[in-house]
Amino acid sequence: MAGKDHYYNKAKQEGYRSRAAYKLKQLDQLENVIDGGDTVVDLGAAPGGWLEVAAEAVGPNGNVIGVDFQRIKDFDDHDNVETLRGDMTEDKTRDRVVDAAGGPVDVVVSDMAPNMSGEYSLDQARSLHLARQAFETALELLDSGGDFVVKVFEGPDVDDFRADVEEEFQYVRATSPEASRDESSEVYFIGKGRLTAPVRSGDELEVEIESVGSEGDGIASVEGYRLFVSDTDEGETVTVRVEDVKPNFGFAQRIDEE
Ligand SMILES: C[S@@+](CC[C@H](N)C(=O)[O-])C[C@H]1O[C@@H](n2cnc3c(N)ncnc32)[C@H](O)[C@@H]1O
């Protein structure tokens, strides 16, 4: 039958609500996005294939929150999934999601897609708009070190979007999972390790070395964020260039000496 492919049949057989379930499985296998015990927020979640995959991945100690402007049927076999009905382009929906999360979350995923008009440039622009809404929500919700997955249709301004995501995560990987239809122009960005550090790679600043770590590097604190600086001693004030930023600490190079 037309449109019924391998993953469609597999979803039917394995009891997932959508073939899309396998995309999240493949994205998770690629970059280990969801861990047991995580709290996951899924934007554009109907009919709920991703919610089922996320519920399995987080296990009994995790939580999954799904939102869509379409109704998502209740899950009989997952009691750790909560669903909300609303439009993610509206602030009030975002506020409800933030309330439901009740604090920072580990993962934000978005499979949101616009209703297709058939005119690619219009659909692509709408897809990018939804991806940016998801990004804003992720920035509001994600804990330091948290991960973000977002779908977008290939086209103009997607490189700029990727660059913006790269600013906020340790790294970004772009991929088209095998379960995406062959003819599809969709790409998923996986942002790994949300950075909430007050510095970024390349920043130059003056810091005071407050202590020395077990490896012999000096340690400075920038608004509570630890920067390791080699070849420095406790009590020194030095000018450094930030070389590498991790979610909870970073590395900097001294630049005030020959
Ligand atoms: C490809 S489907 C998601 C499939 C889902 N990942 C699954 O596994 O079942 C895209 C969804 O995005 C939703 N969507 C699109 N725009 C939205 C918006 N502004 N707010 C909330 N949901 C939206 C659509 O209603 C649709 O259900």
UniProtKB/TrEMBL annotation:
User: Domain TRAM, which positions?
Assistant: 198-256
Protein keywords? Cytoplasm, Methyltransferase, rRNA processing, S-adenosyl-L-methionine, Transferase
What is the main EC category here? transferase
Enumerate the PROSITE patterns for this protein: TRAM (PS50926)
Q: Can you say where in the cell this protein is located? A: Cytoplasm
**Residues at the active site:** K151 (proton acceptor)
One Gene Ontology cellular component term attached to this UniProt record is: cytoplasm
Report any Pfam family annotated for this entry.
Answer: FtsJ
Residue positions annotated to bind S-adenosyl-L-methionine are: G48, W50, D68, D87, D111
Q: Does the keyword Hydrolase apply?
A: no
Query: What EC number(s) does the entry state?
Result: 2.1.1.166
Gene Ontology MF terms in the entry: rRNA (uridine-2'-O-)-methyltransferase activity
Catalytic function, reaction form = uridine(2552) in 23S rRNA + S-adenosyl-L-methionine = 2'-O-methyluridine(2552) in 23S rRNA + S-adenosyl-L-homocysteine + H(+)
**Any idea what job this protein has?**
Specifically methylates the uridine in position 2552 of 23S rRNA at the 2'-O position of the ribose in the fully assembled 50S ribosomal subunit.
**PANTHER family, alphabetized:** PRE-RRNA 2'-O-RIBOSE RNA METHYLTRANSFERASE FTSJ3, RIBOSOMAL RNA METHYLTRANSFERASE
Q: Give the family this protein belongs to, as stated in its UniProt record.
A: Belongs to the class I-like SAM-binding methyltransferase superfamily. RNA methyltransferase RlmE family.
What name is this protein filed under? Answer: Ribosomal RNA large subunit methyltransferase E
Which organism is this entry from? Natrinema salsiterrestre
